[in-house]
Protein backbone atom coordinates (compact mmCIF):
# COMPACT_ATOMS: atom_id res chain seq x y z
CA UNK A 1 0.00 0.00 0.00
CA UNK A 2 1.07 3.59 -0.62
CA UNK A 3 2.59 5.52 2.25
CA UNK A 4 1.82 8.94 0.88
CA UNK A 5 -0.79 10.20 -1.59
CA UNK A 6 -0.98 13.63 -3.21
CA UNK A 7 -4.51 15.00 -3.60
CA UNK A 8 -4.67 17.08 -6.77
CA UNK A 9 -7.89 18.91 -5.95
CA UNK A 10 -9.58 21.28 -3.50
CA UNK A 11 -12.80 21.69 -1.54
CA UNK A 12 -14.98 18.91 -0.23
CA UNK A 13 -13.55 16.24 -2.55
CA UNK A 14 -9.98 16.91 -1.40
CA UNK A 15 -11.25 16.44 2.14
CA UNK A 16 -13.10 13.27 1.15
CA UNK A 17 -9.93 11.71 -0.29
CA UNK A 18 -7.91 12.82 2.73
CA UNK A 19 -10.37 11.07 5.04
CA UNK A 20 -10.12 7.77 3.15
CA UNK A 21 -6.32 7.98 3.20
CA UNK A 22 -6.16 8.70 6.95
CA UNK A 23 -8.35 5.69 7.68
CA UNK A 24 -5.99 3.54 5.62
CA UNK A 25 -2.91 4.84 7.44
CA UNK A 26 -1.75 6.76 4.36
CA UNK A 27 -0.25 10.23 4.76
CA UNK A 28 -1.60 13.00 2.55
CA UNK A 29 -0.18 15.92 0.62
CA UNK A 30 -2.55 18.76 -0.16
CA UNK A 31 -1.82 21.11 -3.01
CA UNK A 32 -3.46 24.52 -3.11
CA UNK A 33 -3.60 27.88 -4.78
CA UNK A 34 -2.75 31.09 -2.92
CA UNK A 35 -6.51 31.66 -2.57
CA UNK A 36 -6.92 28.37 -0.68
CA UNK A 37 -4.15 28.74 1.91
CA UNK A 38 -6.82 28.62 4.68
CA UNK A 39 -8.86 25.79 3.18
CA UNK A 40 -9.83 22.84 5.36
CA UNK A 41 -8.16 20.27 3.11
CA UNK A 42 -4.89 22.16 3.52
CA UNK A 43 -5.32 22.37 7.30
CA UNK A 44 -6.02 18.66 7.69
CA UNK A 45 -3.46 17.21 5.28
CA UNK A 46 -0.16 15.99 6.68
CA UNK A 47 1.73 18.26 4.30
CA UNK A 48 0.78 20.99 1.87
CA UNK A 49 2.36 22.67 -1.11
CA UNK A 50 1.28 25.93 -2.74
CA UNK A 51 1.18 25.30 -6.49
CA UNK A 52 0.28 28.72 -7.85
CA UNK A 53 -2.00 31.73 -7.89
CA UNK A 54 -5.81 31.70 -7.64
CA UNK A 55 -6.87 31.04 -11.26
CA UNK A 56 -7.23 27.26 -11.68
CA UNK A 57 -5.21 27.19 -14.91
CA UNK A 58 -2.21 28.43 -12.91
CA UNK A 59 -2.69 26.11 -9.94
CA UNK A 60 -5.13 23.17 -9.94
CA UNK A 61 -4.56 22.67 -13.68
CA UNK A 62 -0.83 23.38 -13.49
CA UNK A 63 0.61 19.93 -14.25
CA UNK A 64 4.34 20.73 -13.80
CA UNK A 65 3.65 22.31 -10.39
CA UNK A 66 1.63 19.29 -9.25
CA UNK A 67 4.28 16.81 -10.38
CA UNK A 68 6.97 18.90 -8.67
CA UNK A 69 4.90 18.89 -5.46
CA UNK A 70 4.68 15.08 -5.61
CA UNK A 71 8.41 14.77 -6.15
CA UNK A 72 9.37 17.22 -3.40
CA UNK A 73 7.15 15.50 -0.85
CA UNK A 74 7.88 11.94 -1.94
CA UNK A 75 4.24 11.08 -2.67
CA UNK A 76 3.83 7.80 -4.56
CA UNK A 77 0.38 8.26 -5.99
CA UNK A 78 -1.91 11.06 -7.15
CA UNK A 79 -5.67 11.19 -6.58
CA UNK A 80 -7.31 13.62 -9.02
CA UNK A 81 -10.78 13.87 -7.40
CA UNK A 82 -13.41 15.09 -9.87
CA UNK A 83 -13.26 18.07 -12.23
CA UNK A 84 -9.87 19.77 -12.83
CA UNK A 85 -7.43 17.11 -14.16
CA UNK A 86 -9.48 14.03 -13.29
CA UNK A 87 -10.44 13.26 -16.89
CA UNK A 88 -7.28 14.53 -18.52
CA UNK A 89 -5.61 11.49 -20.14
CA UNK A 90 -2.38 13.38 -20.68
CA UNK A 91 -2.16 14.21 -16.99
CA UNK A 92 -2.59 10.52 -16.14
CA UNK A 93 0.21 9.70 -18.61
CA UNK A 94 2.54 12.34 -17.19
CA UNK A 95 1.89 11.10 -13.64
CA UNK A 96 2.80 7.54 -14.69
CA UNK A 97 5.81 8.74 -16.71
CA UNK A 98 7.20 10.17 -13.48
CA UNK A 99 7.00 6.81 -11.79
CA UNK A 100 3.92 7.80 -9.78
CA UNK A 101 0.59 5.94 -9.67
CA UNK A 102 -2.48 7.66 -11.06
CA UNK A 103 -5.45 6.67 -8.92
CA UNK A 104 -7.88 6.11 -11.76
CA UNK A 105 -8.37 4.21 -15.00
CA UNK A 106 -5.82 3.89 -17.81
CA UNK A 107 -5.12 6.98 -19.92
CA UNK A 108 -6.58 5.12 -22.92
CA UNK A 109 -9.91 4.59 -21.21
CA UNK A 110 -10.02 8.20 -20.04
CA UNK A 111 -9.34 9.35 -23.60
CA UNK A 112 -11.91 7.00 -25.13
CA UNK A 113 -14.72 8.11 -22.83
CA UNK A 114 -13.68 11.77 -22.89
CA UNK A 115 -14.70 12.01 -26.51
CA UNK A 116 -18.45 11.45 -26.41
CA UNK A 117 -18.62 10.43 -30.06
CA UNK A 118 -15.96 7.76 -29.54
CA UNK A 119 -17.60 6.80 -26.26
CA UNK A 120 -20.91 6.15 -28.01
CA UNK A 121 -19.18 4.04 -30.65
CA UNK A 122 -17.47 2.03 -27.94
CA UNK A 123 -20.72 1.73 -25.98
CA UNK A 124 -22.47 0.28 -29.00
CA UNK A 125 -19.71 -2.31 -29.48
CA UNK A 126 -19.92 -3.15 -25.79
CA UNK A 127 -23.62 -3.86 -26.10
CA UNK A 128 -25.09 -0.77 -24.43
CA UNK A 129 -28.33 0.73 -25.80
CA UNK A 130 -27.84 4.24 -27.27
CA UNK A 131 -29.88 7.40 -27.78
CA UNK A 132 -30.63 7.52 -31.53
CA UNK A 133 -28.29 9.99 -33.22
CA UNK A 134 -25.31 10.53 -35.50
CA UNK A 135 -22.56 7.93 -35.66
CA UNK A 136 -19.83 10.52 -35.86
CA UNK A 137 -19.28 14.27 -35.78
CA UNK A 138 -21.49 16.45 -37.96
CA UNK A 139 -19.56 19.00 -39.91
CA UNK A 140 -21.91 19.95 -42.67
CA UNK A 141 -25.22 21.77 -42.24
CA UNK A 142 -27.01 19.94 -45.04
CA UNK A 143 -25.91 16.59 -43.65
CA UNK A 144 -27.06 17.62 -40.17
CA UNK A 145 -30.44 18.59 -41.58
CA UNK A 146 -30.82 15.23 -43.29
CA UNK A 147 -29.92 13.27 -40.17
CA UNK A 148 -32.16 15.43 -37.96
CA UNK A 149 -35.12 14.69 -40.23
CA UNK A 150 -34.36 10.98 -40.01
CA UNK A 151 -34.15 11.01 -36.22
CA UNK A 152 -37.08 13.41 -35.96
CA UNK A 153 -37.20 16.80 -34.23
CA UNK A 154 -36.52 17.97 -31.61
CA UNK A 155 -32.83 17.09 -31.72
CA UNK A 156 -30.01 17.98 -29.37
CA UNK A 157 -26.67 19.30 -30.65
CA UNK A 158 -23.97 18.14 -28.24
CA UNK A 159 -20.24 18.87 -27.96
CA UNK A 160 -18.02 15.80 -28.36
CA UNK A 161 -15.75 17.18 -25.64
CA UNK A 162 -18.66 18.43 -23.52
CA UNK A 163 -19.09 18.31 -19.78
CA UNK A 164 -20.89 20.09 -16.99
CA UNK A 165 -23.97 20.51 -19.15
CA UNK A 166 -22.24 22.99 -21.46
CA UNK A 167 -22.15 23.01 -25.26
CA UNK A 168 -25.67 21.55 -25.60
CA UNK A 169 -28.36 23.15 -27.77
CA UNK A 170 -31.87 21.98 -28.60
CA UNK A 171 -33.28 22.44 -32.11
CA UNK A 172 -37.08 22.17 -32.29
CA UNK A 173 -37.23 22.43 -36.08
CA UNK A 174 -35.15 22.65 -39.24
CA UNK A 175 -35.04 26.44 -38.88
CA UNK A 176 -33.64 26.21 -35.38
CA UNK A 177 -31.00 23.65 -36.29
CA UNK A 178 -28.70 26.07 -38.10
CA UNK A 179 -28.52 28.38 -35.10
CA UNK A 180 -28.20 25.49 -32.63
CA UNK A 181 -25.26 24.11 -34.62
CA UNK A 182 -23.52 27.46 -34.69
CA UNK A 183 -23.99 28.28 -31.02
CA UNK A 184 -23.12 24.78 -29.83
CA UNK A 185 -19.94 24.85 -31.93
CA UNK A 186 -18.91 28.28 -30.71
CA UNK A 187 -19.61 27.35 -27.07
CA UNK A 188 -17.76 24.06 -27.41
CA UNK A 189 -14.76 25.73 -29.01
CA UNK A 190 -14.59 28.35 -26.27
CA UNK A 191 -15.14 25.92 -23.38
CA UNK A 192 -13.31 22.79 -24.55
CA UNK A 193 -11.05 23.90 -27.41
CA UNK A 194 -12.82 21.62 -29.90
CA UNK A 195 -15.85 22.47 -32.00
CA UNK A 196 -16.74 18.85 -32.84
CA UNK A 197 -20.47 18.33 -32.28
CA UNK A 198 -22.95 15.51 -32.85
CA UNK A 199 -26.71 15.08 -32.89
CA UNK A 200 -28.94 13.10 -30.60
CA UNK A 201 -32.66 12.64 -30.40
CA UNK A 202 -33.91 15.03 -27.72
CA UNK A 203 -35.86 12.81 -25.38
CA UNK A 204 -39.06 14.41 -24.07
CA UNK A 205 -39.36 13.37 -20.43
CA UNK A 206 -36.58 11.01 -19.42
CA UNK A 207 -35.03 10.40 -16.05
CA UNK A 208 -31.25 10.45 -15.62
CA UNK A 209 -30.22 7.07 -14.24
CA UNK A 210 -26.57 6.15 -13.80
CA UNK A 211 -24.89 2.95 -12.75
CA UNK A 212 -21.84 2.86 -10.49
CA UNK A 213 -19.22 0.29 -11.30
CA UNK A 214 -16.07 -0.80 -9.53
CA UNK A 215 -13.36 -3.00 -11.11
CA UNK A 216 -10.04 -4.36 -9.92
CA UNK A 217 -7.11 -5.36 -12.13
CA UNK A 218 -7.84 -9.08 -11.75
CA UNK A 219 -11.05 -9.13 -13.75
CA UNK A 220 -13.51 -8.67 -10.89
CA UNK A 221 -16.24 -6.21 -11.88
CA UNK A 222 -19.15 -5.27 -9.65
CA UNK A 223 -21.98 -2.81 -10.12
CA UNK A 224 -23.32 -0.94 -7.11
CA UNK A 225 -26.79 -0.17 -8.36
CA UNK A 226 -28.10 3.07 -9.77
CA UNK A 227 -28.44 6.70 -8.79
CA UNK A 228 -31.31 8.86 -9.96
CA UNK A 229 -29.94 12.28 -10.90
CA UNK A 230 -33.01 13.66 -12.67
CA UNK A 231 -33.29 16.76 -10.49
CA UNK A 232 -31.21 19.12 -12.58
CA UNK A 233 -30.93 22.77 -13.44
CA UNK A 234 -29.25 23.69 -16.73
CA UNK A 235 -28.33 20.02 -17.21
CA UNK A 236 -26.47 20.05 -13.90
CA UNK A 237 -27.39 17.81 -11.01
CA UNK A 238 -28.87 19.41 -7.90
CA UNK A 239 -30.19 16.51 -5.77
CA UNK A 240 -29.61 12.80 -6.28
CA UNK A 241 -31.11 9.69 -4.75
CA UNK A 242 -30.38 5.99 -4.65
CA UNK A 243 -32.07 3.71 -5.41
CA UNK A 244 -34.19 5.39 -8.07
CA UNK A 245 -37.90 5.47 -7.20
CA UNK A 246 -38.55 4.58 -10.85
CA UNK A 247 -36.43 1.42 -11.12
CA UNK A 248 -37.41 -1.98 -9.80
CA UNK A 249 -35.13 -4.77 -8.63
CA UNK A 250 -35.41 -6.63 -11.94
CA UNK A 251 -34.37 -3.59 -14.01
CA UNK A 252 -31.55 -2.87 -11.56
CA UNK A 253 -30.17 -6.38 -11.88
CA UNK A 254 -30.61 -6.47 -15.66
CA UNK A 255 -28.98 -3.10 -16.39
CA UNK A 256 -26.31 -3.64 -13.76
CA UNK A 257 -25.33 -6.86 -15.43
CA UNK A 258 -25.30 -5.32 -18.91
CA UNK A 259 -23.02 -2.53 -17.67
CA UNK A 260 -20.78 -4.87 -15.66
CA UNK A 261 -20.34 -7.12 -18.72
CA UNK A 262 -19.47 -4.09 -20.86
CA UNK A 263 -16.82 -2.99 -18.34
CA UNK A 264 -15.42 -6.51 -18.18
CA UNK A 265 -15.08 -6.55 -21.97
CA UNK A 266 -13.42 -3.13 -21.89
CA UNK A 267 -10.94 -4.24 -19.21
CA UNK A 268 -11.78 -1.17 -17.16
CA UNK A 269 -10.15 -0.53 -13.77
CA UNK A 270 -11.21 1.53 -10.77
CA UNK A 271 -14.51 3.35 -10.33
CA UNK A 272 -16.65 4.59 -13.17
CA UNK A 273 -20.19 5.66 -13.89
CA UNK A 274 -22.22 4.79 -16.93
CA UNK A 275 -24.97 7.34 -17.51
CA UNK A 276 -28.30 6.65 -19.16
CA UNK A 277 -31.51 8.43 -19.92
CA UNK A 278 -34.50 6.30 -19.00
CA UNK A 279 -37.83 6.78 -20.71
CA UNK A 280 -40.84 4.46 -21.13
CA UNK A 281 -38.96 1.54 -19.61
CA UNK A 282 -35.98 1.86 -21.98
CA UNK A 283 -32.39 2.84 -21.15
CA UNK A 284 -30.29 4.98 -23.50
CA UNK A 285 -26.54 5.43 -22.90
CA UNK A 286 -25.41 9.08 -22.95
CA UNK A 287 -21.89 9.02 -21.54
CA UNK A 288 -19.42 7.43 -19.17
CA UNK A 289 -17.48 9.24 -16.45
CA UNK A 290 -14.08 7.71 -15.75
CA UNK A 291 -13.70 9.13 -12.26
CA UNK A 292 -15.28 9.43 -8.85
CA UNK A 293 -18.51 11.41 -9.07
CA UNK A 294 -19.82 14.20 -6.86
CA UNK A 295 -22.82 12.04 -5.90
CA UNK A 296 -20.83 8.90 -5.00
CA UNK A 297 -21.73 9.12 -1.26
CA UNK A 298 -25.33 7.99 -1.81
CA UNK A 299 -24.02 4.74 -3.27
CA UNK A 300 -21.67 4.41 -0.31
CA UNK A 301 -24.63 4.93 2.02
CA UNK A 302 -26.76 2.16 0.52
CA UNK A 303 -23.95 -0.36 -0.04
CA UNK A 304 -21.62 0.38 2.88
CA UNK A 305 -18.68 0.37 0.44
CA UNK A 306 -16.11 3.19 0.70
CA UNK A 307 -15.53 3.99 -2.97
CA UNK A 308 -12.41 6.09 -2.41
CA UNK A 309 -10.83 3.39 -0.29
CA UNK A 310 -11.57 0.84 -3.04
CA UNK A 311 -10.16 3.19 -5.70
CA UNK A 312 -6.92 3.48 -3.75
CA UNK A 313 -6.75 -0.27 -3.10
CA UNK A 314 -7.29 -1.08 -6.79
CA UNK A 315 -4.64 1.48 -7.81
CA UNK A 316 -2.21 -0.18 -5.40
CA UNK A 317 -2.79 -3.48 -7.20
CA UNK A 318 -4.99 -5.14 -4.59
CA UNK A 319 -7.95 -7.35 -5.49
CA UNK A 320 -11.47 -6.18 -4.57
CA UNK A 321 -11.99 -9.02 -2.16
CA UNK A 322 -15.72 -9.27 -2.79
CA UNK A 323 -18.01 -10.15 -5.67
CA UNK A 324 -21.42 -9.12 -6.95
CA UNK A 325 -23.10 -11.58 -4.61
CA UNK A 326 -21.66 -9.73 -1.62
CA UNK A 327 -23.14 -6.39 -2.70
CA UNK A 328 -26.40 -5.55 -0.88
CA UNK A 329 -28.46 -2.44 -1.43
CA UNK A 330 -29.82 -1.34 1.95
CA UNK A 331 -32.28 1.46 2.56
CA UNK A 332 -32.40 4.74 0.73
CA UNK A 333 -30.05 7.73 0.41
CA UNK A 334 -30.39 11.31 -0.83
CA UNK A 335 -27.70 13.89 -1.51
CA UNK A 336 -28.26 17.66 -1.71
CA UNK A 337 -25.62 19.71 -3.46
CA UNK A 338 -25.40 22.94 -1.51
CA UNK A 339 -24.01 25.79 -3.55
CA UNK A 340 -22.92 29.29 -2.54
CA UNK A 341 -25.63 30.79 -4.72
CA UNK A 342 -28.88 32.62 -4.24
CA UNK A 343 -31.58 29.95 -4.22
CA UNK A 344 -33.89 31.96 -6.50
CA UNK A 345 -31.60 33.87 -8.86
CA UNK A 346 -28.67 31.43 -8.67
CA UNK A 347 -26.27 34.38 -8.54
CA UNK A 348 -22.94 33.25 -7.03
CA UNK A 349 -22.46 34.29 -3.42
CA UNK A 350 -18.84 33.85 -2.32
CA UNK A 351 -17.57 35.56 0.83
CA UNK A 352 -17.28 35.19 4.59
CA UNK A 353 -19.18 32.39 6.35
CA UNK A 354 -19.89 34.16 9.63
CA UNK A 355 -22.01 31.42 11.23
CA UNK A 356 -21.82 27.71 10.63
CA UNK A 357 -23.64 24.78 12.11
CA UNK A 358 -23.76 21.43 10.33
CA UNK A 359 -26.54 18.92 11.01
CA UNK A 360 -25.78 15.56 12.58
CA UNK A 361 -27.46 12.54 14.07
CA UNK A 362 -28.19 9.08 12.79
CA UNK A 363 -27.88 8.66 9.04
CA UNK A 364 -26.59 12.18 8.37
CA UNK A 365 -23.29 12.87 6.62
CA UNK A 366 -21.92 16.26 5.60
CA UNK A 367 -19.00 16.43 3.17
CA UNK A 368 -17.76 19.99 3.28
CA UNK A 369 -14.70 22.09 3.93
CA UNK A 370 -16.79 24.89 5.48
CA UNK A 371 -16.15 26.33 8.94
CA UNK A 372 -17.11 29.49 10.77
CA UNK A 373 -14.81 32.30 9.65
CA UNK A 374 -13.97 30.67 6.31
CA UNK A 375 -14.02 32.98 3.32
CA UNK A 376 -15.30 31.25 0.17
CA UNK A 377 -13.08 32.37 -2.71
CA UNK A 378 -14.82 33.56 -5.88
CA UNK A 379 -12.59 31.65 -8.30
CA UNK A 380 -13.96 28.14 -8.21
CA UNK A 381 -17.07 25.99 -8.47
CA UNK A 382 -19.87 27.12 -6.13
CA UNK A 383 -20.39 23.68 -4.52
CA UNK A 384 -19.63 24.22 -0.81
CA UNK A 385 -21.23 21.22 0.88
CA UNK A 386 -22.96 17.92 0.27
CA UNK A 387 -25.63 16.81 2.69
CA UNK A 388 -26.13 13.06 2.47
CA UNK A 389 -28.86 11.31 4.43
CA UNK A 390 -29.60 7.63 4.72
CA UNK A 391 -32.77 5.95 5.97
CA UNK A 392 -34.14 2.43 6.13
CA UNK A 393 -36.63 3.37 3.42
CA UNK A 394 -37.39 6.34 1.19
CA UNK A 395 -39.96 7.83 3.54
CA UNK A 396 -37.63 7.76 6.53
CA UNK A 397 -34.91 9.23 4.34
CA UNK A 398 -37.09 12.16 3.26
CA UNK A 399 -38.19 12.90 6.85
CA UNK A 400 -34.55 12.80 7.93
CA UNK A 401 -33.55 15.05 5.03
CA UNK A 402 -36.14 17.65 6.04
CA UNK A 403 -34.97 17.79 9.63
CA UNK A 404 -31.28 17.88 8.60
CA UNK A 405 -32.00 20.77 6.22
CA UNK A 406 -33.78 22.58 9.07
CA UNK A 407 -30.73 22.16 11.32
CA UNK A 408 -28.22 23.35 8.75
CA UNK A 409 -27.06 26.95 9.27
CA UNK A 410 -24.70 28.69 6.87
CA UNK A 411 -24.66 32.40 7.66
CA UNK A 412 -23.17 35.39 5.87
CA UNK A 413 -23.66 34.12 2.33
CA UNK A 414 -26.57 32.93 0.18
CA UNK A 415 -26.90 29.18 -0.31
CA UNK A 416 -29.23 26.82 -2.13
CA UNK A 417 -30.47 25.32 1.17
CA UNK A 418 -33.93 26.96 0.70
CA UNK A 419 -34.26 25.34 -2.73
CA UNK A 420 -33.56 21.92 -1.22
CA UNK A 421 -36.13 22.57 1.49
CA UNK A 422 -38.67 23.35 -1.18
CA UNK A 423 -37.87 20.18 -3.11
CA UNK A 424 -37.91 17.99 0.01
CA UNK A 425 -41.47 19.13 0.81
CA UNK A 426 -42.89 19.01 -2.70
CA UNK A 427 -45.58 16.33 -3.24
CA UNK A 428 -44.12 15.33 -6.63
CA UNK A 429 -40.76 14.69 -5.03
CA UNK A 430 -42.34 12.81 -2.16
CA UNK A 431 -44.19 10.65 -4.72
CA UNK A 432 -40.97 10.17 -6.71
CA UNK A 433 -42.63 11.40 -9.92
CA UNK A 434 -40.19 13.74 -11.60
CA UNK A 435 -38.07 13.79 -14.74
CA UNK A 436 -35.07 15.84 -15.93
CA UNK A 437 -37.26 18.87 -16.66
CA UNK A 438 -39.24 18.96 -13.42
CA UNK A 439 -36.87 21.14 -11.38
CA UNK A 440 -36.38 23.64 -14.18
CA UNK A 441 -40.17 24.14 -14.24
CA UNK A 442 -40.33 24.48 -10.45
CA UNK A 443 -37.64 27.14 -10.48
CA UNK A 444 -39.23 29.03 -13.40
CA UNK A 445 -42.68 29.08 -11.74
CA UNK A 446 -41.30 31.04 -8.83
CA UNK A 447 -41.59 34.18 -11.01
P1 LIG B 1 -22.50 16.54 -19.61
O1 LIG B 1 -21.29 15.70 -19.87
O2 LIG B 1 -22.33 17.96 -20.07
O3 LIG B 1 -23.00 16.43 -18.21
P2 LIG B 1 -24.50 14.62 -20.55
O4 LIG B 1 -24.44 13.99 -21.87
O5 LIG B 1 -24.10 13.80 -19.37
O6 LIG B 1 -23.65 15.98 -20.57
O7 LIG B 1 -25.97 15.17 -20.31
C1 LIG B 1 -26.29 15.98 -19.19
C2 LIG B 1 -27.79 16.13 -19.07
O8 LIG B 1 -28.34 16.73 -20.26
C3 LIG B 1 -28.56 14.81 -18.94
O9 LIG B 1 -28.59 14.36 -17.61
C4 LIG B 1 -29.92 15.23 -19.45
O10 LIG B 1 -30.62 15.98 -18.47
C5 LIG B 1 -29.60 16.16 -20.59
N1 LIG B 1 -29.51 15.41 -21.86
C6 LIG B 1 -28.39 14.88 -22.43
N2 LIG B 1 -28.68 14.24 -23.58
C7 LIG B 1 -30.02 14.35 -23.76
C8 LIG B 1 -30.96 13.88 -24.77
N3 LIG B 1 -30.55 13.19 -25.83
N4 LIG B 1 -32.27 14.19 -24.60
C9 LIG B 1 -32.70 14.91 -23.52
N5 LIG B 1 -31.87 15.36 -22.56
C10 LIG B 1 -30.56 15.10 -22.66
From TrEMBL:
Pathway: Lipid metabolism; malonyl-CoA biosynthesis; malonyl-CoA from acetyl-CoA: step 1/1. Its EC number is 6.3.4.14. Pfam families: Biotin_carb_C (PF02785), Biotin_carb_N (PF00289), CPSase_L_D2 (PF02786). One of its GO terms (molecular function) is biotin carboxylase activity. Keywords: ATP-binding, Biotin, Fatty acid biosynthesis, Fatty acid metabolism, Ligase, Lipid biosynthesis, Lipid metabolism, Magnesium, Metal-binding, Nucleotide-binding. Residues 1-444 form the Biotin carboxylation domain. It is an enzyme of class 6 (ligase). One of its GO terms (biological process) is fatty acid biosynthetic process. Residues 120-316 form the ATP-grasp domain. It catalyses: N(6)-biotinyl-L-lysyl-[protein] + hydrogencarbonate + ATP = N(6)-carboxybiotinyl-L-lysyl-[protein] + ADP + phosphate + H(+). SUPFAM superfamilies: Glutathione synthetase ATP-binding domain-like, PreATP-grasp domain, Rudiment single hybrid motif. The keyword Magnesium applies. Acetyl-CoA carboxylase is a heterohexamer of biotin carboxyl carrier protein, biotin carboxylase and the two subunits of carboxyl transferase in a 2:2 complex. This protein is a component of the acetyl coenzyme A carboxylase complex; first, biotin carboxylase catalyzes the carboxylation of the carrier protein and then the transcarboxylase transfers the carboxyl group to form malonyl-CoA. This is Biotin carboxylase. It comes from Tistrella mobilis.
